[in-house]
Design goal:
heterodimer, A: 253 residues, Rossmann fold, globular, B: 467 residues, MetI-like fold, 16 helices
Chain lengths: 253, 467
């Protein structure tokens, strides 16, 4: 078992009057893929958005409780969100490349954090990120073309490359394959397998099969509560909780 | 008379609605058949059939009646020995005849006029009577036709749809035809102007002073007169003045409008937005003449005062004052439009930017604005076309003399100002001076048309990308 990278303690999230997460205690291991499953609206996405404080963007969202990364509390008003997000990258449900060139899409992050001061350094970051995202071979000859012109699967890998470009420690993926076809999905899953050697990955998914394929650890959420968490194998073969059993066998959700 | 007719037709057709509805109901019960539409559609069907043909006929009749009577009367007057050399004199006689008929003519009445007035009265009578008879005939014919139809259980719902579609089409046709009519009237008057003044002398002339353009006889302009004329209608100073003032206005409106749009879209809380957006849009509702005297009475003299204190000569009607006020007038357009385009940039792009650690202002500067740029350019172009077409402010604050200058403290003039100056007061409609107003109008129209087209293309291109 790897070391614990992220630790949430009694995490509660409210959207205005509505409570979206109830006392979530979840540990995520370093250099491992943790899958979060559960029916729509159960709080999986809300949970991962707490890890890079993306919920700050939403005015009515209030977060209480603790999240620690490497033992450092991140749910702290004084914490520098910019450097947190440098460490915790995110890939979204729908590919969202900027309406800029492929090159600019990747160099955007490093430039913001003042990395890659010379052109050649920047070129190197772009090339490495695209290589890690398994996109380099497909786009190396057209880096100046718009990122929005790529296919859906390529766009999503471009977004992964964009997340990698600032050299994070954690990558959050919010249903990264839900807008993609099976072939593109297979490529992304392959990529996730590769990336977990370097990064701690948290993936939200609606596909049980995907959770089984890519993750080592799985957490099941229902109505804002973490119902069960454990080794993926165990969750899918022999869950402790009746609700988990019902969900993974497709009896609800 | 017409109002009575319209009233009667309306009342009658509305009552037919109830008749048609109950009639078809009873038919369906009597014969035990299923109607092809709800009873009310048969009511609508009767109403439309009864009213539309007769009203359309009435409209056409009313349009053509005076024209036909006029030509008949003028002809009879001519047969009786009235002498007129051209169209204008014929019109004059016709007006006299009409005035005699109405009892408002106080000049001498000779036999020709008297006879003509009598025949005018006769024709008016005849036309009115036949109008009434024909309208009744049309109403009866169309009611009989439609009653027969509904008794045969026609597909009234489909028929009503077709008629309504036709009505809507006719309305849009009228809108388009009106626009075309305006364009053509501009075009024809401009062609008259350009048949006197060479189009190149107009487009590239650097001197605009139409008040010098006196001609003894507009139909026969001598070469010496033309030399004088072609120097009076140079377009360059006007387009320069117009662009210059519009440029100053844009210098004011684009930054302020854009920044306020960004604030509204990105930073303002729902509460602030709900209060401040209507307030900004109120600026767009202020009549331009109010801005005009604000510019002429407050801002112009204010600049002049400052200029004097600094030892500069500032004309009290300066391009700067007019442009500044025009810019303030345009702020809400730019602000509101750019607010809209920024709002329609998908949230996912902002999320993507925040997720790599960009701050809000970095996100706006590097992702949101570039993504919204085509739309923003579109809104700026719309604002430019608004600026060059703006009239009241420049009439009041920009001055009349066509100076070719780039000094914002001097007075300058614009296309719209000159059109107003030319057409205000008594005019001879065949002088090149008056016709030049139409040429200016046409030029302005083409300029704004091109700008609007480009702006719409830009906005559309942008919309396609995200919707």
């Amino acid at each position: 078992m790897n070391e614990i990278k992220i630790k949430s303690k009694n995490l509660n999230v409210y959207y205005g009057e509505k409570q979206a997460l109830f006392d979530v205690n979840l540990d995520l291991n370093e250099k491992e893929v943790t899958a979060l499953i559960g029916p729509s609206g159960c709080g999986k996405s809300t949970f991962i958005r707490c890890i890079n404080r993306m919920n700050d963007v939403i005015d009515i969202c209030k977060v209480s409780g603790n999240i620690e990364i490497d033992g450092v509390e991140i749910n702290d008003k004084n914490l520098d969100v910019v450097s947190l997000r440098e460490r915790v990258g995110m890939v979204f449900q729908k590919p969202n490349p900027f309406p800029k060139s492929i090159y600019d899409n990747i160099s955007y992050g490093p430039k913001i954090h003042g990395k890659g001061e010379t052109k050649s350094e920047l070129d190197e970051i772009v090339e490495n990120s695209l290589k890690k995202a398994a996109l380099w071979e497909e786009v190396k000859d057209r880096l100046d073309e718009p990122g929005t012109g790529l296919s859906g699967g390529q766009q999503q890998r471009l977004c992964i490359a964009r997340a990698i470009s600032v050299n994070p420690e954690v990558i959050l993926m919010d249903e990264p394959c839900s807008a993609l076809d099976p072939i593109a999905t297979a490529k992304i899953e392959e990529l996730i397998d590769e990336l977990k050697k370097t990064y701690t990955i948290v993936i939200v998914t609606h596909s049980m099969a995907q959770a089984v394929r890519v993750s080592q650890k799985t957490g099941f959420f229902h109505l804002g509560k973490l119902i069960e968490v454990g080794k993926t194998e165990k969750i899918f073969k022999n869950p402790d909780n009746k609700m988990t059993q019902d969900y993974i066998t497709g009896r609800f959700g | 008379m017409n109002f009575v007719l319209i009233f009667l037709i309306t009342i009658f057709s509305l009552s037919l609605f109830f008749y048609g509805r109950s009639k078809t109901k009873s038919i369906s019960i009597e014969k035990n058949i299923k109607l092809n539409a709800l009873p009310k559609f048969y009511g609508y069907y009767l109403v439309l059939w009864c009213s539309i043909p007769s009203l359309v006929f009435l409209l056409i009749w009313t349009l053509f009646e005076p024209v036909i009577i006029k030509s008949i009367i003028i002809e009879t007057a001519a047969n009786q020995g009235a002498i007129f050399n051209d169209k204008n004199e014929a019109n004059l006689i016709y007006e006299k005849i009409k005035a005699i008929y109405a009892g408002t003519y106080f000049g001498d009445i000779d036999t020709i006029l008297k006879e003509s007035a009598l025949s005018y009265a006769k024709f008016i009578n005849l036309f009115t009577n036949s109008k009434i008879v024909l309208i009744f005939a049309i109403v009866i014919a169309s009611v009989i036709y439609s009653l027969k139809k509904i008794k045969n259980n026609n597909k009234a719902r489909d028929d009503v749809e077709v008629i309504l579609k036709g009505l809507l089409f006719a309305s849009s046709l009228i809108a388009i035809l009106t626009t075309l009519g305006i364009i053509f009237s501009l075009l024809f008057e401009s062609i008259k102007f350009f048949s006197v003044i060479n189009i190149f002398d107009y487009l590239f002339g650097t001197n605009w002073s139409p008040q010098r353009a006196f001609v003894s006889d507009a139909s026969a302009i001598t070469a010496a007169e033309y030399d004088e004329l072609k120097d009076a209608f140079g377009f360059i100073p006007l387009i320069a003045g117009t662009s210059f003032i519009a440029f100053i206005a844009m210098l004011v409106a684009v930054p302020i409008g854009l920044f306020s749009g960004i604030y509204m879209a990105e930073y303002a809380s729902v509460k602030i937005r709900r209060i401040s957006k209507p307030i900004i849009e109120i600026l767009a509702g202020i009549p331009t003449v109010v801005y005009g005297f604000f510019a002429a009475l407050t801002v112009g003299p204010f600049f002049r005062q400052i200029g004097e204190n600094l030892g500069l000569t500032v004309s009290s009607e300066s391009a700067l004052a007019a442009g500044l006020i025009m810019g303030i007038m345009i702020i809400p357009y730019v602000s509101s439009l750019s607010d809209d385009v920024i709002n329609s940039v998908p949230q996912s792009l902002r999320d993507g930017s925040y997720a790599v650690g960009a701050t809000k202002s970095e996100t706006i500067k590097k992702v949101v604005i570039p993504a919204a740029l085509p739309g923003i350019i579109g809104s700026v172009l719309l604002a430019v076309s608004r600026a060059i077409g703006e009239t009241m402010i420049v009439v009041m604050a920009a001055g009349l003399a066509a100076n070719l200058t780039i000094n914002p403290l001097e007075s300058t003039t614009t296309i719209t100002t000159q059109i107003v100056m030319i057409l205000v007061g008594d005019q001879e409609f065949d002088s090149p001076k008056t016709q030049s107003a139409f040429a200016l109008g046409l030029t302005l129209f083409i300029a704004t048309l091109v700008l609007n087209y480009i702006a719409q293309r830009a906005v559309k291109k942008y919309r396609e990308k995200y919707d």
